Amino acid sequence: QAKAAGRRTFLRYADAMDGDIRRRATLIAALRKVVERGELRLVYQPQLVLADGRIGAVEALLRWNSPEHGDVPPSQFIPLAEESGLIVSIGEWVLREACNTLADWRRDGIDNVLMSVNVSAVQLLRSDLAQTVQQVLRETGVPANQLELELTESVLMANAEHATERLQTFRRLGVSIAVDDFGTGYSSLAYLRRLPITTLKIDKAFIDDLGRPGDSEDAAITTTVIAMAHSLGLRVVAEGVETAEQQRFLLQHGCDMVQGYLLSGPLNSLDCLRFLQDWQNTPQVVSASARLDPA
Ligand code: C2E
Ligand code: MG
Ligand code: MG
Ligand code: MG
Question: Looking at the record's lineage, which domain of life comes first (predicted)?
């Protein structure tokens, strides 16, 4: 009896596994054609400089709309693109598209905005990313100091020496390097000190409870990270800032920039251009007591 039940459970499990493997395989097959079929697009999420109320940067985020699978979230397809190696060509498309967009915006009077592009480990370690970056910068005319590459902490940790060497190349070019999702891995700030990075993005998980009464751990971690990052000369960005309380806390503790739904969600390139232009025309002062409202 128990054996039979166990067997049924196993079969259901095996069935589910099978379905899962099949879905992965179909998604990977579909991913092979996304670039040529024009199924990818980028959206752009602005980052606010707390000290002067400027929009200092914009992060490019990838979207896939598949005719067969609908909107597939990056959390689902990026890992598959990495496993299959397709991230190299997809990532090149991302880089070129993001820089083309920035070049357009520059022609429309937007300057001094950094374009931040997510880069996966596979791209950094198993492709000639530096060559691609240089080529794209040449093609689009975007200055190297307006490009930032975001890498997750785990990549830099797992391949420290190799990664460091590669990152040096970008720093020599003048490209900024951000550590994404900081705090979710195991790296210490002492370790980060040895990496040629410019920016630290504190993961949303630490931001969520900031400014709420009773929260002390995340607040302590965040303030410590900000202070130590500053002592290493790094710029600090808080990810996933959704409330005025969180932003106020971050401002009070010297965080440099915020990104999140409070300011804006990701926008298509035209809406983002309008956002940037409106913002330039009516700069908003960020104060510790008020939100972004102009009093
Ligand atoms: P990430 O780089 O840490 O990007 C931040 C994610 O948080 C984005 O999710 C963004 O839409 C979301 N987000 C921003 N503000 C808020 C907020 O206030 N609240 C909440 N709940 N979420 C917020 P998205 O666009 O789904 O991207 C997920 C992840 O996929 C990214 O995390 C990044 O790791 C990866 N990814 C996205 N685009 C690319 C790409 O072009 N290349 C590579 N390699 N990875 C990418
Ligand atoms: Mg990112
Ligand atoms: Mg992140
Ligand atoms: Mg993330």
Answer: Bacteria
The set of residues, in sequence order, having a beta carbon less than 8 Å from that of 6 and lying 6+ positions away, is none
Q: Pick from 196, 175, 174, 202: which is nearest to 98 by CA?
A: 175
Using a 6 Å cutoff on CB, does residue 120 contact ligand 1?
A: yes
Name the residue of 118, 132, 241, 262 whose CB sits within 8 Å of the most ligand 1 atoms, as the mutation to test its pocket: 118
Distance of CA 281 to the CA centre of its chain: 27
* Spatial CA neighbour of 95 closest among 154, 175, 180, 31: 175
How far is C-alpha 209 from the chain's CA centre?
Answer: 21
Ligand 1 atom with least separation from CA of 43 = 25
Query: pLDDT tens digits, residue range 164-199?
Result: 999 999 999 999 999 999 988 776 777 788 889 999
Contact at 8 Å (CB) between 163 and 130? no
Alpha helix stretches (DSSP H) within 174-268: 189-192, 204-207, 217-231, 244-252
Tell me which H or E stretch contains 13: helix 2-31
State the 10-residue block means of pLDDT for the chain, 295 residues long: 68 70 92 96 98 96 96 96 96 98 97 96 90 98 98 81 91 96 78 89 94 84 93 96 96 97 98 96 65 43
Judge if the beta carbon of residue 78 lies within 6 A of ligand 1: yes
ipTM attached to this prediction: 0.98
Angstrom distance (rounded) from CA 229 to CA 111: 27
Phi, psi angle pair for 267, to nearest 5°: -125, 155
